[in-house]
Structures are given as structure tokens and as C-alpha cells.
């Protein structure tokens, strides 16, 4: 589903990703763990073409669903992405949050950040948007303005937006940022339920406590610090489950960690 081979991304002369190699297979729920600044979000930016790996000869450093070239809008229907940054852009960005929940979900069909002007929105799209919200127990948010929702409510609407096209995988980049403890617990329970229904989950986080051993089948570390933190919490239990698991053995990072 997602393959990186010796991928390197340079920003302002600094290597934010250096020789990163990983492979995420369809159906394999995966977590990528690392502190802020470890380059986790750069992975998302490569998918959306906001960042690019240094070009080189085959094999390509980045392949998504078996291809090294893709149209971002077309990819949206196969790979849903939810992040705190996307939340901020919806609420504080161009649409200023003045968009109803159902319209935010409908915008997922067009890979826009809330804009529907000039686009042909069908009744089937609105029906699918309403159905997706209902499936996430968020039907009551359909007519509510995004900027009037709590952080947890808005994040749930953005998950509906990501799922409305029935993607093969859902990428969550620091999805609990800004949530209180109760909202965070509910959100992670929602993610586990989505995973059980067959959508591949890729969770990018700096919080080991968000990695549920009963759901995640592979764990990658973005830095040596991440490995140390995981080892320090190896015997803890989170929400009744072990913090780590023998089923999570793989790590990624700089070349000397491969």
C-alpha cells in the first residue's frame, strides 16, 4: 500500500527525513511513533505532494498503491487523511469554519477544504455524506457549523469526510491533538471500530499511549528517542491493554537504524 525506500527529504538544507525505508501492507494497521520534529508529518506531505523525496534511479523512493506517480485528487478516494493541521485549515483557513458538517463531508468527494462553489454536488453524494456521519454517530452534526463544534466533534466530521469515498486506508496524523482526555478516549475507540470494519489504519503520533496493541499490527519508530520511550513503558497498560506488544517489532529511521 505504502512503500518508502531510502527516502530523503531536504528542507532549507536540512534533512528532515534521511534514508527512510518502510512498507505498509493493505490490511496491516500500523503506527508510526516519534517525537515532534522527527519528520512524521513529512510522510503525509509526500503523499499530498507538499514535500518531495530526492529523486534518484529505480527503485522509486516513494510508491503508493504500487505506483510512484499519482494524482492527489484521485488518491483522495483511496487514501483518507485526517490531521490536526487539516482541522485548523477548515476552521481557521479559507472557509473560516463557516461550513456545515454535511458540506464538510461532501467536500471529501472533491478533495477540497470545504469549498463546493461551482462543483456539481449530487443527491447521492449528500446521501452518502449523511450515511457516513450516521455511521460515526455524528448525524446530529450534519447541520451544525464546523466553527461551532467542539474539537472532538469537528475531528469526527473530518473522519467522515475522509471515509465518505470508502477509501482503502485511513491515515491519521496526530489526530488527538487538542482533545481532552474523554474526547481522546472516544476518538481512539472510534478508530478501533473503523479498523475492525476493514479500513487499514496508519496512525502517526508521538504518544505511545495511543498505540492500542489489540488493533495495531506493526509499529515503526521515527527516532532512537522513540525506541527508548517505548522500552521505558514496555510493561505499562493503556486502556486495559499492554502499551507494547511482541507483534510490533519493526523500526525505521536513519540508515543506521534500518
Tell me the distance between the termini: 20 Å
What is the number of helices? 8
Secondary-structure element order, as H and E?
A: EEEHEHEHHHHEHEEHEE
Indicate the low-confidence ranges by residue numbers.
230-258
Biggest sheet architecture: 5 strands, parallel
Strand content: 15-25%
CATH superfamily of the largest domain, please? P-loop containing nucleotide triphosphate hydrolases
Q: Quick check: average pLDDT?
A: 78
Globally, the shape reads globular
What structural category arises from helix and sheet content?
alpha/beta
Could you give the order of strands across the largest sheet? 5-6-7-3-8
Tally of strands = 10
Q: How large, in whole angstroms, is the Cα Rg?
A: 18 Å
Q: Give the name of the CATH architecture of the largest domain.
A: 3-Layer(aba) Sandwich
Helix content: 25-40%
Question: What is the count of distinct domains?
Answer: 2
Could you say what the CATH topology of the largest domain is called?
Rossmann fold
How do the helices and strands line up, and which of them pair or pack?
Elements: E1 2-11, E2 14-24, E3 30-33, H1 40-47, E4 62-64, H2 72-76, E5 79-83, H3 84-92, H4 101-106, H5 123-135, H6 151-163, E6 169-173, H7 181-196, E7 200-205, E8 218-221, H8 224-232, E9 237-238, E10 241-242
Parallel strand pairs: 3-7, 3-8, 5-6, 6-7
Antiparallel strand pairs: 1-2, 1-4, 9-10
Report on the architecture of this protein.
- This protein has two domains: 2-78 and 169-257, Rossmann fold (3-Layer(aba) Sandwich); 97-166.
- It is globular, with a radius of gyration of 18 Å.
- Strand 6, helix 7 (181-196) and strand 7 (200-205) form a beta-alpha-beta unit.
- With 258 residues, the chain is of the alpha/beta class.
- It has eight helices and ten strands.
- Helix content is 31%, strand content 20%.
- It has helices spanning 40-47, 72-76, 84-92, 101-106, 123-135, 151-163, 181-196, 224-232; strands at 2-11, 14-24, 30-33, 62-64, 79-83, 169-173, 200-205, 218-221, 237-238, 241-242.
- A five-stranded parallel sheet has the order 5-6-7-3-8, with helices on both faces. Strands 2-1-4 form a three-stranded antiparallel sheet, with helices on one face. It has a two-stranded antiparallel ribbon with strand order 9-10.
